[in-house]
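With this grant's support, we have settled on a layout for protein records. A representative record follows, to show the layout.
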Amino acid sequence: MAPHKAPVSSRRSDRSRRAIYDAALALVGESGYRRTTIEGIAARAGVGKQTIYRWWPSKAAVLMEAFLDLAARAAEEAGPQAGGAEYGIPDTGDLAADLKLVLRATVDELNDPLMEAPTRALTAEGIVDAKLGAEFVGKLLDPQLALYVTRLRAAQEAGQLRPDADPRIALELLIAPLTHRWLLRTLPLTHAYADTIVDYALGGLTPRS
């Protein structure tokens, strides 16, 4: 008997799913969330509309899964040295160096055209669509922020941070400035800026005696 071969349908499904991801991210970046439609995604991906509805209940579900897949691939490509989301934030014993490494990687991600357009579209829509916003935070942001909390708590245990500091508030001192500058596009988002944020957050702004 001829050896059993895996059905090609699974490979077709994988190709179709990837095409749908790519089409959804491209369209939301080009046209915005509200103008992106299931029909448009299907046409761009070269699949039937019914294929999309068979796998996802809504446009939001398609885009969210596509974006989560994109973020996972970006983290995998960044690897553990850059603090990719699936690896956690490095702990070399030098808190400032570890945070600078991760914030620099965040700057690169936010400046990457492939990531920037869908991130902006979903961020903007999440402000007016509470359900989408909650899903965006719960599935993407919270897991990443939890990595900062873990690293900052380790720094507290090592005596590198005040024991009474709230790690959640501390991480906001690091993330919020990057997000603010990126959203408003007021000034360039650079590695030097990321390093300065870490220096200010850890060292404070008041003169030292």
Confidence is low (pLDDT under 50) at residues 1-8. Residues 49 and 99 are 44 Å apart (CA to CA). The two ends are 84 Å apart (CA to CA).
